[in-house]
Specification:
It is globular, with a radius of gyration of 19 Å. It is α/β, with parallel strands linked by helices. The model has no long low-confidence stretch (mean pLDDT about 95). The termini are far apart. The protein is built from 13 helices and 14 strands.
Length: about 325
């Protein structure tokens, strides 16, 4: 094992809640660093240490990550509405605090840093254009702009001994212990299950999507591959590209409920791009193994098993509602 001891920021979030148990099962020691705003969903484990902390606290990040071999940086204010709620807070966490993560890696001689970036930086692209990692970014939100800025910050930092890679996932979907229901596939699915109606805003926008279990698999791979394949590189990770309307139709078909209604209304959200993942396949041999139907079914199963509590209103499933509830500053 190249990196036995891991430091994961944002470990209590949507991705972290699925990733941490998987890494523990593979034999890693994990330091889970998070504010745990959405509760502590990580089951106790002999090799897991929970640290409640804020990545804006530079000294605490250094102290908590001491002795770790690799860092997976997931922590951020995720999705555009949450970010727009308080732009200054969004900048402080999503951009300014990234310097603390880099400095902690340097101070503690961490060998590998895996950075969660985003395909949202691509903004709006014509439907016929396959968006590769080298295409010009055209972000239309601060969230996306700061993802690019963090990549550039690290590329320009004096970190000669640190291996690093940027992971640019599509919009995630599927069940995880800390569930988000403010993401496209998940939103449409939970509305079909609870309201028996799927409301589609726009419909023509292209939305690349990725099952959260494939996201976990990709992070696991980032801990295995040699540095020469990934150092200073960015990788798109996506299962496929569908329009919002196509996703809605897939949800309805997967659930097999003819009584679920589809309602299409106008949208002011222009974000649309078709993500190309040839680089991950060519360089790393990575292919997704979980389709979007599996994501829909995982949510259906959780709903039917009673694991979701008031899924349309509970702030714990919606970033912007939870931030308003806590008045995070």
């Amino acid at each position: 094992m190249q990196f036995p001891r891991l430091f994961i920021t944002g470990a209590g979030g949507y991705v972290g809640s699925a990733l941490v148990p998987a890494l523990l099962a593979r034999g890693h020691d994990v330091v889970a660093y998070d504010l745990f705003l959405y509760g502590d969903v990580l089951a106790p484990h002999a090799n897991l240490r929970l640290v409640k902390g804020d990545i804006r606290d530079a000294a605490h990040v250094v102290k908590a990550s001491a002795g770790c071999d690799a860092v997976i940086h997931l922590a951020c204010i995720s999705n555009d509405p949450s970010f727009d709620l308080d732009p200054a807070l969004g900048r402080a966490i999503n951009y300014d605090a990234f310097r603390n993560v880099i400095d902690a890696c340097t101070h503690n001689q961490v060998r590998r840093l895996i950075v969660a970036s985003s395909t949202s930086q691509y903004g709006v692209k014509p439907a016929h254009v396959d968006v590769t990692e080298d295409i010009e970014a055209e972000p239309i939100t601060d969230y996306a702009r700061f993802k690019i800025a963090c990549e550039r910050m690290l590329l320009q930092a004096p970190t000669s001994s640190l291996e690093f890679v940027f992971v640019r996932p599509a919009t995630l979907c599927g069940y995880a212990p800390r569930l988000r229901l403010d993401l496209s596939v998940n939103i449409l699915t939970i509305n079909a299950l609870v309201n028996r109606k799927i409301k589609v805003f726009g419909g023509d926008q292209m939305r690349p999507a990725l099952h959260i279990l494939d996201m976990v698999r990709f992070y696991e791979l980032m801990l295995e591959v040699p540095a020469e394949k990934i150092h200073r590189q960015a990788f798109n990770v996506s299962y496929g590209n569908l329009t919002i309307l196509e996703i809605a139709q897939l949800v309805k078909e997967t659930l097999g409920d003819d009584d679920v209604a589809l309602e299409v209304t106008p949208s002011s959200d222009p974000r649309s791009y078709r993500v190309n993942t040839d680089k991950a396949a060519r360089v790393l041999g990575f292919h997704c193994t979980h389709d979007l139907r599996a994501a829909v079914l995982s949510l259906r199963d959780a709903w039917q098993a009673g694991r979701l509590s008031d899924p349309l209103e509970n702030p714990m499933y919606y970033n912007i509602k939870r931030m308003k509830q806590l008045d995070l500053r």
